[in-house]
Write a structure and sequence with these properties.
about 350 residues, alpha+beta, Neuraminidase, Serine Threonine Protein Phosphatase 5, Tetratricopeptide repeat, 2 domains, 4-stranded antiparallel beta sheet, globular
Amino acid sequence: MGGPKMKTIKYLSSLFLFAFLLNNLGAQEVIIKKEDFASKDDYKIAKEYLSKAEEYYALGRGGMKSALDFYLKVYQYIPNHAMLNYKIGSCYLHSIQKVKCLDYFKKAYSLNPTIQPDIVWNLATGYHLNADFDKAIEFYTKYKNQLSPSDLQQKRKEIDKRIQECNNGKELIKNPIRVFIDNLGPNVNTMAPEYSPLISADESMLLFTSRRPDTYGGGSDPDDNLYFEDIYVSYNDGNGWSLAKNVGKPLNTKNNDATVGLSPDGTQLFTFNGKVNNGDIYVSKLKGSEWTAPDDGPLKKYINTEFHETSASFSFDGKTMYFVSDREGGFGGHDIWVSQWDK
């Protein structure tokens, strides 16, 4: 790819379903009473579990997994506690097992329909995740109807978008397509998060982002208490993928470094730098067998702004770039934009 100038064109469509998952982390504490337990010992054990769960929950997204483990232990003693069910649902909603949130949100709602201001929204999201589109539309509409005029003005676009997604889903499931999804195995996947995979055109190289203990510098992100993101690489020799390795410097630093996009010829890697302008896209070039230090020079004028730019993808000829930004002029939140290289 190359060229002296790029022109940014209007966004194509809104990005992902769950841009606002963090809204429900300000929930009240779970209060338990001795009389709700069969014995004092049960109450004491549950109270200790609950204390640990609440401590992890207060950490935000990075504490959700540990919080869930302890909340589920408490749940064994008091399954009919509205706030406990709400928080278990919230933890699942922030996990890779999002579909499990529905049962707990349903129970919390049945026990106390006003348990939290966003319970109806979360119920709608749970139904949406489980492809129960009619129920999701019912609760999105219910949530919409209970908002004040000022809140409705702020949230109408997102609610209407969700409802449209449900209507689209209803049409798509009328003609299902059979697909097979295989796990790449332990050479690539670990207990840590792995995401944003990029594969070269000849399918010989896989680059992806992970948050593992061997992150370059060994630090953790204070925003979520997870290890900093790093870029990893695995190669396919025709017999399978090799053991993934941290690519190290210069692609990885002591902060978050994530894969964003790969040019069709595999010679330019686009990465995310979260420390500049609320997040910008950088580019690194493959020189022989080494990657250059990521730089935003080619993207500074037309792609990167003071807003949040992430996730890029390219046409096969490398002349069209689709990327994500929350810049002004979109539908709201993060939208997909397109930029083309001039001849």
